[in-house]
Amino acid sequence: MREPVLPAAQIVLTLALAAWMITGFTPLPGRWLRWKMFCRATFTIVTLTGTKDGHAESVNVYDHLSPGSFILGPPQLQAVLDHLTTSGRYDRIDGTGRVLSARGEQPVKVVASRVVL
To answer: Closest Cα partner for 94 from 75, 114, 79, 71?
Structure first.
């Protein structure tokens, strides 16, 4: 009689673990059993062009961050743009892209070195 109980318990535990793992990756931020890295992170994907003395060139903001940095939200992007313009490297930076966050995907523009959502 005890033999069928053990496999049944293993099946129930396996299904419970699988359900817990599936709900852990659903997009409901701040709820119980949600993985905060995906719920709270904000990623910015932008194509930027910097202008200095009439000469335009492509700008990679990740070249100006510490090694291993990959999460960049709009406030951090603005800080990098401020650094690049106040240091004299560029007179102006412009571009377009997308912001990915728990609220979904939004367009973003950089106009005259200012991030515009």
So the answer is: 114
Q: Contact, 96 vs 109, CB < 8 A?
A: yes
What residue has token string 């000469």? Answer: 55
Minimal CA–CA distance to 92: which of 52, 39, 35, 47? Answer: 52
Which H or E element spans position 77?
Answer: helix 74-86
pTM exceeds 0.70, yes or no: no
E-state strands within the chain: 43-52, 55-59, 92-101, 104-111, 114-116
> Comparing 71 with 31, which gets the higher pLDDT?
71
* Residue type, position 95, single letter: G
